[in-house]
Amino acid sequence: MEQERIRQRLVSCRRDIHRYPECNWLTFRTSILLAEQLERAGYMVYIGEEIVPAARVIDPPTTEEVKKAKERCRAELYSCEAEALWEKWESRMGCLGGVIAVYDSGRPGPVVACRFDTDALKLTESTDAARVPVQQGFLSCHEGSFHGCGHDGHTAVGLVSAERLMEESEALNGTLIFIFQPAEEGVRGARSYCENWQFGPVDVFLSGHIGFTGPDTFVAGAQQFLATTETDGEFIGVSAHAGAHPERGKNALLALAKAVVRMQDIPKPQEGTVRLNVGVMQAGEARNTIPAHAGFQMETRGSDDEKKDYMQSEAERILNECAKEYGVELRLKIKRGGECADSDESLSKRILSIVEECGLYEHCVLHQAFGASEDATSFMRMVQESGGQAAYMLFGCPESGQHHEDGFDFDETVLEKSCEIWIRVVRDVLK
User: Fold this and answer.
1) Exposure string (b/e) for 59-72, b if CB count within 10 Å is 16 or more?
2) pLDDT, tens digit, 9 for 90 and up, residues 61-108
3) Rounded to whole angstroms, how far apart are CA atoms 201 and 388?
4) How far apart are CA 193 and CA 242, in angstroms?
5) Are 115 and 207 in contact (CB under 8 A)?
6) CA–CA distance, 381 with 377 (Å, rounded to integer)
7) CA angle at residue 132 from 217 to 16, to 5 degrees?
8) Which residues, including other chains, have CB under 8 Å from residue 360's CB and lie 6 or more apart?
């Protein structure tokens, strides 16, 4: 009966978060519900700007974005008769979402930090009738926002793990920190938290992800995260009437279009992994006007900093050449970046031994290349550079579609598996 209660709690939490996705730093509803439940469980809770002031975060939300997100959050809490929670937490939260919960046992022991990402993607969810969220009635109700990367599952597992560990808090030594971090997408949140960290040295850092491995595979320590640089740019030309005097204009859109095509042909190194993607292009003012403005958002990645920097340098060279060719101005702004990191060998082996003993997965492996970027690497590097250890776990499960696709979903049996592993690993470190 107890196991069934836990399973239902995990599924209920995940589906509620999935139905109300929130992006970037604006995870207000998610944060308020987390903060309340973690405080009830017995943690000392910090929320929003108590963790880091908005002025110090990377790419903070605008005043208008905060206003709209808070209005929606308040309406949704009032609709489920949770208005008291809004009154309690809103002023403490300020302009940012995010929650950190701390339990200090008062007994000697290590400081263990467990990090879970909470933000959704700016992506419209598929309404295909064959999908479980459609059939079970927890499809995203926020147009253009969708938990298409499994962060809803991560958040649910983190909350239930935190609650269950407090039920046995007398057996835990040291200090336990649960980090529910927004703005993972776009690698903004973790670096902002690390640059403003106020919770002292961390001995053991743990994080993880649903998927990115085989359906019945557990990875104790992911390796080879891709470093990334994210860049916003704009070509600025001169507008002109496209019919009467096109020769008077300088076409920013043509410069951008040519640059994007040329960047696809940047020579790749013989070894390692590199990536380049222009994910957003916005240009022009009217159909009969030579486009004077063309903005874009781009990212470069590499299996190490050198390869990432190579792709960034080559991309900037092409962008500048195209600006010169079309006689337009180029403005670039480096927004943020993600780091390379590897899980520690000894900690990964310790985790592997614990999970092999559980018998929850058919295949348990020590290491696997992650093959993408993840801003948990900022925490990993912070902890490792201070003498601590870090590990990033992968929880395999059957999936529908791929991460960051509109039809992505995962088998919810992974929630119970990963929750059990989180509890066993933390218990082992803090015993």
Assistant:
1) ebbeeeebeebbeb
2) 999 999 999 999 999 998 877 889 999 999 999 999 999 999 999 999
3) 8
4) 49
5) yes
6) 6
7) 90
8) 218, 417, 420, 421
Residue with tokens 């920190």: 177
Beta bridge partners of 113: 177, 205
Is-contact 249 237, C-beta < 8 A? yes
Average pLDDT estimate for 297-316: 93
Q: Record the tokens describing residue 164, joined without a space.
A: 């269950």
Express each pLDDT in 136-170 by its tens digit.
999 999 999 999 999 999 999 999 999 999 999 99
Average pLDDT of the chain? 95
Q: Which residue has the tokens 């579609």?
A: 401
SS3 371: coil
Torsion sign, CA atoms 208, 210, 216, 222: negative
Interstrand relation of 363-369 and 217-223 (parallel, antiparallel or unpaired)? parallel
- Look up residue 112 and give its amino acid: V
Give residue for tokens 């499809």. 139
Q: Are 220 and 259 in contact (CB under 8 A)?
A: no
Q: Show the tokens assigned to 130.
A: 């064959």
Per the model's pLDDT, the better-predicted residue between 176 and 188 turns out to be 176
Return the number of other C-beta atoms located less than 10 Å from residue 279's C-beta. 9
CB atoms within 10 A of CB 342: 21
Q: What's the chain's Rg over C-alpha atoms?
A: 23
- Amino acid identity of residue 197, one-letter, is W
User: Does residue 302 carry a pLDDT above 80?
Assistant: yes
pTM comes to 0.89
Rounded-to-integer distance, Cα 153 and Cα 373, Å: 19
Which position has the token pair 């960051």?
A: 404
Tokens for 168? 């046995």
**Cα–Cα distance measured from residue 115 to residue 98, given in angstroms and rounded to the nearest whole number:** 11
Distances (CA, A) of 70 to 28, 33, 52, 89, 258: 7, 14, 18, 12, 41
Q: How far is CA 333 from the centre of its chain?
A: 21
Task: Name which of 227, 216, 226, 213 is nearest 368 in CA terms.
Answer: 213
